Amino acid sequence: MTEYVQIAETVTPLQGAIHRLEAQFAGAVRRDDREGFSGVIVDSGRLVEVATFARDTLGFSYLSSATAVDYLGKAEGDPLEMVYHTYNLQGGPALVLKARTPRSEATLPSLVGVWPGANFQEREAWDLMGIRFEGHPNLTRILMWEGFNGHPLRKDWHEAYYEEDTKPFDSRWPEGRVSRAEEHNPYGRNVKYPADFALDGYESLAEKALYDAAPMGVHVTDMATDRVVVSMGPQHPSTHGVFRMIATLDGETIVGLEPVMGYLHRNHDKIGERNTFLHNMPFTDRLDYFCSMSNNHGYALAVEQLMALGKRYEPPTYRAEAIRVLMVELTRILNHLVAIGFLLNDLGAYFTPLMYAIIERELILDFFEATSGSRMMCNYMRFGGVAYDLPQRIEGTAALVNDRVRDFDTMHYLRDLINDRLPRAIDQTNDLLTTNEIITNRCIGVGVLTREDAIACSAAGPVLRASGVPYDVRRAEPYSIYPDLEFDVAVRYHGDIYDRYLIRLDEMRQSIRILKQILPILEETKGQPFFAGRGGQYNPRIPAGEAYGRAENPKGELGYYVVSDGGQNPWRYHVRAPSFINLTALEQMCKGHKVADVVAILGSIDIVLGEVDR
Amino acid sequence: MTNSDGDFLHELHHPDVPVPEAVRSVVTVTSFGKLMDAIYNWGRRNSVWPMFLGLACCAIEMIATASSRFDQARFGMELLRASPRQADLMIASGTVTKKMIVPIVRLYNQMSEPKYVLAMGACAIGGGPFKEGYSVVSGLDKYIPVDIYVPGCPPTPQALLYGFLMLHKKIDGQSLGNRNSVPWYSRTPGEDVPVPVLGPDIIDPRQAYLLRRATTTASEAHASA
To answer: How far is A56 from chain B (nearest CA, A)?
Structure first.
């Protein structure tokens, strides 16, 4: 015990926690001593004990991310490794727990009992990496369908259109002829089947498995009405894309709800591991397609962390950081306005409130287009800065023939937008909606997520903060120039739809506050470099190691877990998507409410399917 | 439209069918059928109702097209209908995955004729940036017929509006008298597209013979070895 006190005086809280773990679980916990890696490797037999100790005694109560890495050919025995990033809600860096399992019979104990937020993430690891979690309540495929052949993220699993392990491919022009992937597949499609597959008599499991989990029929003893299973989506105007829910109803009351996703699963991780580091930047745009700028930022942060492990690293310039914050905060306002518009859509005010939001969105997109060249998919940030400086003037690049001809000075345009236009739009939203009778009646007290549940289910962003947890990555583990900026972390305490709506208004006001501080910085730094790399080199050498870069996205904490083996491509590239993990708590929020409330609750979580399914 | 009606309209296109006196006094008409085509197509193209099928990123630009600045209502597309029964145009706005193509084919079959499909964005056209991935369909037209392709990632609202204009042009070119131009003017009702099955990978029933052949060859090779 005395030894522990001595250590605590000289080391950071994180190191202290690791010392305590090592003392408590001698022999079962060892440090990850690979160059560039951090955290502890836990003996899989005692993983649950260690996790419980970390949560209860050490205070790492928030599980941010849980993901698997395939170390085929990189470590002895070709193990699969599960990586858990846990955080203290008081702030500070992550305690990283890792557990290894052999690939032939990959099994690990489930941590759903410790952190319910691990539920979907473990299902994802089972689906894509084939790790079986013992004790998981519902270990079924989540992104692919039941019956799919193989676990695609394993390094030895190759898809139908497989060409080479890594890009750039040696030749896209074999013998001077262009070839397309379809031409090499006998089916002319992106399909492949196992050798022993027999078509005749085959029964698809994809739908059967879903409905088996939600039994219909009468409970003769205690039930007055039939239970009805309703499938909502994937094509439904209120599911914000191709999301699907299997709801079990008793009359009109929800008694069970199973989110079904994967209808927009587009292999972000697998493609990301084949791409070079820079290749991935435009792909991040397409995760949360409202917020391409902030997705870029999170990924740039992760790779910059990796670059900082090397010898010669130049952090982004001050102007680059200021431009990044400008873009990210504008994105936050854009996203929250549209999110409120969609929420109202779900409450029955079809399309009109959304129109108001889209007016402001178009103005922000004009600025994005003038700066980055694209309205939505900006692909703007680079490792060490941004791709272009702000333009001198914003011209009517998107103007229709009959539209007003637009030509503004950029700073004038921004000043007008930030000081006048956007605050007015936020106030207008507030005036029109906040005290509206229908909204208060339908939102107050509906879809409550308690503080404890929000933490346990790893909710993030506005959903977490509306439940009374003032946790904001911009303050908890500051990045970029946020420490220099003055703003408050918005927090509300009821955890219902109404608070999740109000907190978005609060956050937009805080963003305006930040933006007002950014404007003079942009004026001061005019003409300074916006990119730190030497000679405009966008694709630097990335040293081996791991990094977990996280940014406070409008929808919640967006994390990128990147492992580099020192080559041109990331060995593992995983996205901790806030929308995906926020859905863990959906069933809990919906139970006991009417079926019409489900769409409103879903709208108040504010999901985007590009990020849910990746 | 019953067969007898269809025959009647077809016969109108015959040059021997006389143009009524009342019409001839107002305009010069060479063929009554062509006049019918023009009026009929004018009505159809100016009231195309798209279906609300937001698949991915492009859906946001589709919504932007529908809202204040771009206002697709100017083209007679007043509402995005959520039900396939009320829609004439399927805008496949985004990445089509193997899991999603099953409902899309079902939705396409449920749409009432005349029906059109617009593939919006690189993904719906040919898989786009995600084509190489294991769960993405490399083009919507591998499964259902596509009328208009609008490239871009995502296409701007202007590009989508241009796609609508191209659709108008296409509708204008269709004729009641030409049974072979489109399925819905033919004698027999159009056939449904067979719905794919989610097996070990996605199975298109139209390719079952290929799959059977491949598995038979594989099992024979196995037996001989």
So the answer is: 40
DSSP conformation class of A517: H
Contact flag B130-A196 (C-beta cutoff 8 Å): no
Please tell me the pTM assigned to this model: 0.86
Specify whether A107 is located in the same domain as A190: no
Nearest CA in chain A to B100: A263
| Cβ within 8 Å, pair A189-B138 | yes
Which residues 323-352 of chain A have a CB within 8 Å of chain B? Answer: 351
Q: What is the pLDDT of residues B70-87, one digit of tens each?
A: 888 888 887 788 888 888
> B195-198 — which CB contacts under 8 Å span 24+ positions?
B195/B102, B195/B105, B195/B106, B195/B109, B196/B98, B196/B101, B196/B102, B196/B105, B196/B143, B197/A202, B197/A204, B197/B102, B198/A145, B198/A147, B198/A148, B198/A204, B198/A205, B198/A206, B198/A207, B198/B98, B198/B99, B198/B102
Point out the domain boundary residue: A509, A531, A553: A531
Do B159 and B58 share a structural domain? yes
Per-residue b or e along A226-251, where b marks 16 or more CB atoms closer than 10 Å to that residue's CB = ebebebbbbbbbbbbbbbbbbbbbbe
The complex scores an ipTM of 0.85
Domain residue limits at B221? 196-225
pLDDT tens digits, one per residue of A292-337: 999 999 999 999 888 888 877 888 888 899 999 999 999 999 999 9
Chain B contacts in chain A segment 407-436 (CB below 8 A):
none
Please identify among residues 55-74 of chain B the ones whose CB lies closer than 8 Å to any CB of chain A: 55-57, 59-61, 63-64, 66-70
Indicate yes or no: CB of A159 within 8 angstroms of CB of B204. no
Q: How many domains does chain A have?
A: 3
